[in-house]
Design brief:
By secondary structure, this protein is mainly α. It has 3 helices and 2 strands. Helix 2 packs antiparallel against helix 3. The radius of gyration is 38 Å and the shape is rod-shaped.
């Protein structure tokens, strides 16, 4: 079943029925009720306040990330220096072995020099691995420290905002003693 649709006629009837004008709509604040004006001002003030809190929270988070990345770059540089130092020691040790092998008088002395070298090198490699592990752990801790501090501060601030405030001399809602106005004594909430 086909129903003819007259878009122009429908649009014109809607404009007539609902008083729509194609001109720019202007909000006349003089005709707004006082309560609506107060509500709009209050909403605007709360929005500005929320924006300022969000802006300061974002700036603090960005500052935290910047400090964290600074720690990362410094720690990475220290780790790279340590790895280069270890590689230099290992290369020097290899050259010392080559020098010793060049002066060896027989095959038994060569085997003995190589055995001594590898025993020394394996214990050295274990110590070097421990050095790198310790430095990596320190790097991770240093990088995470600013983020951890920021999260702790943010959680503490949130906890303070969510904790009920004391009013009219009464203790907080967390079950502290309250003043019994009639008797003038403190009593436990119950």
């Amino acid at each position: 079943m086909n129903i003819p649709l007259n878009l122009n006629g429908t649009t014109d009837r809607s404009r007539e029925n609902y008083g729509y004008k194609n001109e720019r709509m202007i909000l006349d604040t003089a005709t707004l009720p006082e309560a609506a004006r107060e509500l709009a001002e209050k909403s605007l003030a709360e929005t500005r306040e929320a924006y300022e809190r969000s802006k300061s929270a974002l700036e603090a988070a960005l500052d935290t990330l910047a400090r964290s990345f600074d720690s990362l770059s410094q720690g990475s540089a220290a780790l790279n220096r340590k790895i280069i130092e270890i590689a230099h020691r290992n290369v020097s040790s290899g050259f010392d072995l080559a020098r010793s092998l060049a002066t060896a008088k027989n095959i038994a002395e060569v085997v003995e020099l190589r055995a001594i070298y590898w025993r020394k090198q394996l214990s050295s490699l274990a110590a070097q691995a421990e050095e790198v592990r310790e430095l990596s752990a320190k790097l991770a801790a240093d990088m995470a420290a600013p983020i951890k501090a920021h999260v702790s501060r943010s959680m503490e601030k949130l906890r303070e905002e969510l904790t009920p405030k004391r009013t009219h001399g009464c203790e907080s809602f967390r079950g502290g003693p309250m003043l019994d106005k009639k008797a003038g004594a403190k009593k436990e909430p119950g």
